[in-house]
Amino acid sequence: MGDLSRRIDPATPPPPPATVPVRRPVEASLRLMSWGWVLIRHDALVPREITPLLPVSIRWIAHLLHGFAGREGREGRPGQRLGKAFEHLGPVAIKLGQVLATRADIFGVEFARDLGRLKDALEPFPLDQARREVERSLGRPVESLFTDFGPPVGAASLAQAHPAWLADGRKVAVKVLRPGAERRVAQGLDSMRLAARLAVRFVPPARRLEPSAFVETIARALQLELDMRLEAAAASELKDIMDRARDRDGGHMTAPAVIWDGVGKRVLTLEWAPGVAMTDPLAAEQPGLDRNALADNVVQAFLTQALDYGTFHADLHEGNLFCHAPAELTAIDFGIVGRLGPAERRYLAEILWGFLSRDYDRISRVHFEAGYVPPEHSVEAFAQALRAVGEPVIGKQASQVSMGRLLGQLFEITALFDMHLRPELILLQKTMVSVEGVARRLNPDHDLWAASQPVVERWIRRELGPQAQVRDAFEEARATLKALSRQAQSAPETRTVIVRETRAPAWMIAGVTLAVAASTAALVLSLWPAIL
Q: What is the pLDDT of residues 33-50, one digit of tens each?
């Protein structure tokens, strides 16, 4: 299997994203207050359903807030009210809701289902407006590229999708950015930056979570998502990765091809994805569909992309996945792409393998070597804490594990050992949460660790096994020989040194001679009494 005790060369973590100042602090402050008011009006800030669970000392605050709830806060379940509030708050809040909707194991199936409409069932904008956006972005009439352009079939926070047909008969999906999306994202991010600064200043426990770095990482992903040309490039890259994974290891996921003639700053055209959207309740009921295998494939596809290629689809919720029998997956919406360097990929693989093999000492050492835990803490004590987390979970069915309790324990441990949020891992952690949520929606008893084992074991064997060690030694020897060859072939630099003989002027020689003679005479006269 390879030597897992071999020390990892410590890698300098990438610098955190540059902090962007709050551009309009007054507007951002007013917007934050309006966000709070929207949540209160929808009874989504402190829902009445959880008020009896609050400590008696603060329960009166919840009752006070309930008095300000409007009609929209008196109707519907908590998930429905929160979803409507997020829709009102805009794209940034909707992205948060999409992540929450994947965690039925934490918040409950009903709550997650109510939030699920945020994935692709928002209110669309009119068809004629979409056609104008396409023509403006592509610089030509819609009819010049598509023989038919249908009404929207799905609307998300930033864009909506339309079915269309090319001249050769192929069905495609045309993704059109919402009018004004850039402005709403910029406003939302400005308010989030202000909220992060307030958290750093007034909530000391939040500082280790690096709220400013978190906001800037999400901001960068959202800004890239607003340019469909960049999304087209990401879709093409991930399709290549998925195709290579299918050819090499059987693969678990594919992506539709990009129609480059239909790509502009605000428009993206892809081949139509086969199968049924996983947000459709009938998707899991398709004849011949293996739900258990499909849940495994979601997890394994993500890990293959992250570990083997260091590039992964970072928005894998049900709204971006299609499936068909027996367990085939197709991903769409490539606006957010996560990337891991070689060091981060190795840390991830060794941490997962450590849990699979229950080697908590190794997991602890990897955390310290990677800089995830400050060096003043004890490796042994951290291993003991990891054992307390891992042992109750490994080998248990998902339905027997309380994810809320587990996350609470993990948060306590990270606080105990002063672990700070690593900005470069935010998208990885976010995607892992989404992927596990999707798998457990398919199979409530899904075993994440068992699904992960084949991919992680293959990576460990390939990258750390005997063949890998021979390969690494050969590469090092090859690099050394190249360096020696370059040094031998480089001719020594020729330098010409010119030595010029200069003669001092006669007046200078005479002056120096007289000065020396006078100094000598003065010295002799001063010492003469001692000489006598």
A: 998 898 899 988 888 888
Q: Would you call 253 helix, strand, or coil by DSSP?
A: coil
Catalytic residue numbers read 315
Percent of the chain with pLDDT over 70: 78
Instruction: Provide the 10 A C-beta neighbour count for residue 257.
Output: 14
Give the residues across from 323 on adjacent strands. Answer: 276, 329
Diameter of the chain measured on Cα atoms = 128
Instruction: Decide: residue 11, CB within 10 A, 0-12 exposed, 13-18 middle, 19+ buried.
Output: middle
Residues contacting 79, CB < 8 A, separation 6+: 107, 110, 111, 112, 113, 114, 115
State the Cα–Cα distance between residues 181 and 187, nearest whole angstrom.
Answer: 10
How far is residue 407 from each of residues 106, 219, 411, measured CA to CA in Å? 9, 25, 6
Which regions of 157-290 does DSSP assign to beta strands (E)?
Answer: 159-166, 171-177, 267-271, 276-277
**Global pTM?**
0.73
Q: Which of 42-56, 117-131, 253-267, 478-492 has the highest mean pLDDT?
A: 253-267
